[in-house]
């Protein structure tokens, strides 16, 4: 973990990744979350997620923008010092992920898998990229999901209410960080309940406590949204807009960035005229109308998005010539992870079905909206464990062959 942190901080300092370009008025410094953080630090409240003043917002979950605002308040808005601190915090989140990776690998497989997966996470440049270049919640989401995954495994045979309280609290924090993680909440809870039931352990009291804690974490933000917008918004409200960006004329299975209000003057004007809630509802209506016109077309786009999510997005690399190589590595990691999952299921390894449900439910929303490599990062720790497991199994079989002969 310490080596992982030192590598990440060294990359930030030596590579000057904390020096964000300001030709876009610093928008690339945190994107919408950075803009909300600026508004909070300036005393304007949780508002203005774009380049213009648009008023109160629920466009993003609240936790990470408040972290940005705190750093901005202390070190200045969009300063290099703020960037350095935020990227270092992200790097700490990423480095800490080595711990749940080790615990999961050891519990589900063996210590060799645990150690080598932790080292892989510590040293791989592709893992370091998001925490050293993006001011976003990506690394925090990966840490939270890995800790939740390990706690779900641990809850299988733990008694008392404390682990359930921790489970509910962690899910509350995760929901306020990245709402996509909540797709794993129902299946992880059901998996824990089923496994404990097989062991003869009761779970009703624990499930009730965890649910209450989870709802208590979300309720202040839900109350704020209701007070501000006059309607129930669980955490964020922009799904309709995201759905439209991925589904409409010229849709090709990728992110149509030119439709985003920050890239499109017409869309920004519509946002101003309608307001956030009405704008998102209108974009959702447009997307659903496009989908209903031709369900076969929508199915084809969803298949493309599935392929791009797991195999890499065409020409996303800064150097288009490198895109095929980059995507080949991306696809190879997917094949190895799926192979490891299949082998774990066949050999009935502990937690194998929890891996299965995570891989099944977490990415599903992106098959209907649009994929991005960043969207896979929160489950990379679990994919990494499966990759190392299948490689270790191949090495074990290779060592056994001479003995057999």
Description of the structure:
Helix 1 (2-14) runs parallel beside helix 6 (111-123) and helix 4 (80-96) packs parallel to helix 8. The protein has helices at residues 2-14, 31-41, 63-75, 80-96, 98-108, 111-123, 125-133, 138-155, 162-175, 185-198, 204-229, 239-246, 265-274, 276-293, 295-311, 323-346, 352-361, 380-404. With 405 residues, it is mostly helical. The mean pLDDT is 95. The chain has 18 helices and no strands.
Shape: globular
Give the topology string: H per helix, E per strand: HHHHHHHHHHHHHHHHHH
Largest β-sheet summary? none
Distance from N terminus to C terminus (CA atoms, Å) equals: 41 Å
Q: Strand content of the residues, in percent?
A: under 5%
Helices and strands: which structural class?
mainly alpha
Low-confidence stretches: none
The whole-number mean of residue pLDDT values reads 95
In total, how many beta strands? Answer: 0
- Separate helix tally: 18
Q: Which percent range fits the helix content?
A: 55-70%
Radius of gyration: 22 Å
């Amino acid at each position: 973990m310490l080596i992982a942190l030192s590598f990440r901080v060294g990359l930030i300092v030596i590579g000057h990744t904390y020096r964000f370009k300001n030709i876009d008025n610093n928008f690339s410094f945190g994107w919408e979350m950075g803009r909300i953080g600026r508004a909070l630090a300036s005393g304007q409240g949780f508002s203005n997620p774009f380049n213009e003043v648009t008023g109160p917002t629920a466009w993003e979950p609240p936790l990470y923008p408040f972290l940005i605002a705190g750093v901005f308040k202390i070190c200045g808005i969009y300063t290099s010092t703020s960037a350095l601190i935020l990227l270092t915090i992200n790097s700490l989140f990423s480095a800490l992920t080595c711990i749940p990776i080790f615990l999961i690998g050891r519990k589900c497989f063996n210590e060799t898998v645990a150690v080598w997966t932790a080292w892989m996470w510590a040293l791989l440049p592709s893992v370091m990229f998001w925490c050293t270049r993006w001011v976003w919640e990506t690394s925090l989401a990966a840490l939270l999901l890995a800790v939740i995954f390990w706690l779900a495994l641990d809850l299988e045979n733990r008694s008392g209410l404390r682990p359930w309280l921790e489970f509910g609290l962690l899910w509350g924090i995760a929901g306020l960080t990245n709402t996509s993680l909540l797709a794993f909440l129902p299946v992880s809870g059901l998996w824990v309940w089923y496994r404990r039931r097989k062991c003869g352990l009761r779970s009703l009291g624990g499930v009730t406590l965890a649910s209450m804690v989870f709802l208590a974490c979300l309720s202040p933000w839900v109350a704020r949204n209701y007070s501000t917008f006059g309607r129930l918004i669980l955490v964020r409200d922009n799904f309709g807009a995201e759905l439209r960006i991925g589904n409409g004329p010229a849709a090709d299975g990728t992110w149509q960035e030119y439709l985003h209000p920050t890239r499109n003057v017409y869309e920004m004007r519509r946002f101003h005229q309608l307001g956030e809630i009405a704008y998102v509802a209108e974009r959702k209506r447009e997307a659903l109308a496009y989908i209903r016109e031709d369900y076969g077309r929508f199915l084809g786009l969803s298949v493309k998005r599935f392929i791009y999510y797991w195999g890499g997005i065409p020409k996303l690399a800064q150097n288009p010539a490198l895109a095929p190589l980059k995507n080949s590595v991306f696809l190879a990691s997917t094949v190895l992870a799926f192979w490891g999952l299949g082998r774990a299921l066949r050999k009935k390894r502990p937690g194998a079905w929890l891996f299965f449900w995570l891989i099944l439910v977490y990415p599903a929303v992106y098959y209907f909206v649009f994929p991005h490599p960043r969207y896979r990062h929160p489950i990379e720790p679990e994919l990494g464990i499966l990759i190392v497991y299948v490689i270790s199994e191949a090495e074990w079989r290779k060592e056994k062959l001479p003995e057999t002969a």
